[in-house]
Amino acid sequence: MTSLPPFSFALIGGLLAIWLALSAWALVSGLALRRSSQQARGQAGRLADLLQSAPAIPMLVRADGRVEAPDRLASWLGRTTVPAFLSELVSEEGGLEPDHARALAAEIKAAQRGSRSFALPVSAQGSSRTLLVRGGPAGPDLASPGTIVLWIFDATESQSQIEDLREQVTRYRDALEALSGVIEAAPMPVWHRTPDQRLSLVNTAYVQAVDAQSASQVIEQGIELIEAIDGLSPGASAARAADAQTPTARMLPVTIDGARRLMRIVDVPLGPVGVAGYAIDMQELEEVRAELRHLVQANRDMLDRLSAGVVQFGSNQLLEFCNQPFLSIFGLTPETASAETHFDRVLDAMRDAGLVPETADFPAWRAERRQWFQSPNAQEEHWRLRDGVHMRVYAQPLPDGGLLLIFEDRTEHVQLSSARDTLLRVRTATLDNLFEAIAVFSSDGRLHLWNSRFRQIWAVQEVMLATHPRVDELMAALADRLARPQQSSLVHQLIRAATVERRQRGGRIAFADGRYFEFAAIPLPDGNALFVMLDISDSRRIEQALRDRNEALEDADRVKTAFVSNMSYELRTPLTSIVGFAEMMQSGYAGELSDQAREYVDAIISSTTRLARLIDNVLDLTQGAAGGLPIERKPVAIEPLIRAVAEKFEPRVAERKITLALSLRPNIGEVKGDGRRIEQAIEHVVDNAVRFVNAGGRVLIHAEGSQKGVRIVVSDDGPGIESKVQARLFDSFARFGHNEEGQASGLGLPLVRQFVEAHEGSVSLVSQPGEGTIVTIDLPRGD
């Protein structure tokens, strides 16, 4: 066996050492590669997990149309598997909307040809999911040329937000346009200032207020609406508002269209964009406020003059105003009813005065009254207080939350109302118990009121009257009650005359049963008509009986007059013979008479003379009653006639120691008439005065004239005549007394009346017992 040289062993050992070193290096390198591979696999797994959880899904579209994408893309497309080719993705079964699929295919082809990126929103079929596809060429390290990388995002939520934002932008744009239109159309000046307080926007009202041509002119020239006041310019005022970040307002005078107006200038800071401003014309408002103040004061002055108590509370339930009657009614002092007095305290003071209704729980009652402030409608109450006082309370809530109370003392009204009700009952009872039938018809002719007598006379049911029929309908229904039914229209005419013509008319009407009624229609002050019916059946029968009796009496009077006239003529013949023989005996034709016989003859002559005068008076009376009294018409001087009458009575006056005085005025003159009859009339009056005046009395004859006639007055201071006798003094054959010598009154005064009235004159008598009598004769001058 050949032994190797040491060099060989050294070489082999070196080789072994190298091999061992290489083996160790290979082992270490393998272990390092293994660790690197494990790390790469871990990193790849983490990247795969990251891609799976990423909001976007990558997809490669190669130049030949092959598609590479994760499996979860299938669920986004509504498919079970991921499409293998682009044609499958953009087909109708690819999962995208057809329009979106065609648009995606066109974008991918364009990106492959032009190497450009794109972004396209697409939607999956049958799903509300919105996908955003962002594509672009893939890098050379990723894939071969012509490959497109698509990143697919789920943009459903963001797209919805984008749509919302677009809608908001549209709304804001519309609102801005509308606001700009409102500002432009605003009747008040509106402007905007930039942060450096220069005008940047004005509306038409502003342009017109400063008499500019356009808004651009105002902005370019910086024309201000108001002038600087107290060194404070409009821009400085806006700067203050911007610094304070608080709106400011000032009342300033502004000249617009040559008129000075009071404007309220308001600056509103808008943050970094500047300051907005507007001006409100307060001139009319201030004038209205001033007028309102005057009106409120005038209203309160008027309320102070009302008899009703008025008190007003504000929304804080504190007293704002009360008039004097309120203080007087409730006995409150001005201090109690001051402006700071609460509603509850006022009610407490009224309760202390005893001028609220008595109640067991006053706090609860007061709380109920407090609800008047919140009541939507006005409230009205009637309080019955002590001593029979009735108070009407009217509570009116005010628009500002306050309350107005009106207290009216209705005591007198209630008493009058009670009295009125009593009077109405009395009237009803009175009308129902009247003997007359009464009905009241209104101005339109309808029956308004009636009593029971009216219903009984016409025999009509209450039910029919209760319908208030018109007078024509009523009388048409009652025409058969009348003796002549056509007379029913007469009642209608009378009611019309009373209501329309306002004239009172009356008449008589006969019923079919023989009754007679007198009726009248009387206009009433309220425009109605009062219809009254009175049963005159008995009066008519009595009237007929009286008429028959009067005719009989007139016949008897004519017989008596003829008898008296005939007897007067018959008595005159023997009386003339007696007077003639007595005068012959007195003259001594029958021989010398003794003294006693002479007294008898004188008595016979005196009695026959008086009897002849009475017969003449009777004849005159009968002739005057028959209208055949002869009267002459000649001028008669009254003064001589009166003196002649006075001379005739001188013996009797002297015998009875009576004073007969004359008072004759110069203007007596003449009258045209029968002197003998006038003398007889005066003589009869003087005869009665001389006959009835007591011994030692006085009789005065006074006469005076005027243009129309002569007045003769005969007065005495005799015993006078009673009033009940005076009415019969001028009646024929009336006897009304005796004088102190027992002589009775005769035919003198009736004859005086006949003689004076025959001359178209008048005679009157005035007398009082114990004060004498005055007889006045008035005679006209005549033609």
Structure commentary:
By secondary structure, the protein is an alpha+beta fold. The chain is 47% helix and 21% strand. The strands form 6 sheets. A 5-stranded antiparallel β-sheet has the order 2-1-5-4-3, with helices on both faces. Strands 7-6-10-9-8 form a 5-stranded antiparallel β-sheet. Strands 12-11-15-14-13 form a 5-stranded antiparallel β-sheet. Helix 18 packs antiparallel against helix 19 (595-626). The model is unreliable at 735-746 (pLDDT under 50).
Write the layout of secondary structure elements.
Layout: H1 6-53, E1 56-61, E2 67-68, H2 72-77, H3 86-89, H4 98-114, E3 118-123, E4 130-137, E5 148-154, H5 156-185, E6 190-193, E7 199-202, H6 204-209, H7 215-221, H8 234-244, E8 248-256, E9 259-269, E10 275-281, H9 283-304, E11 309-313, E12 319-322, H10 324-330, H11 343-352, H12 362-370, E13 379-384, E14 390-397, E15 403-409, H13 411-433, E16 437-441, E17 447-450, H14 452-458, H15 462-466, H16 471-477, H17 488-499, E18 505-510, E19 516-523, E20 529-535, H18 537-587, H19 595-626, E21 634-637, H20 638-648, H21 650-656, E22 659-664, E23 670-673, H22 675-692, E24 698-705, E25 709-716, H23 723-726, H24 748-758, E26 762-767, E27 773-780
- What fold name goes in the CATH topology slot of the largest domain? Heat Shock Protein 90
Q: Strand fraction band?
A: 15-25%
Rg (CA only): 69 Å
Mean pLDDT: 77
Q: How many strands appear in the DSSP assignment? A: 27
Give the low-pLDDT segments: 735-746
Measured distance between first and last alpha carbons: 228 Å
Oligomeric description of these chains: single chain
By CATH reckoning, the class of the largest domain would read: Alpha Beta
Helix content: 40-55%
Largest sheet strand order: 2-1-5-4-3
Largest sheet: 5 strands, antiparallel
Number of domains: 6
The CATH superfamily of the largest domain turns out to be Histidine kinase-like ATPase, C-terminal domain
How would you classify the helix and strand content by structural class?
A: alpha+beta
CATH architectural group of the largest domain: 2-Layer Sandwich
Total DSSP helices: 24
Shape descriptor reads rod-shaped
Pfam families: HATPase_c, HisKA, PAS_7
Keywords: Coiled coil, Kinase, Phosphoprotein, Transferase
Enzyme class: transferase
Protein name: histidine kinase
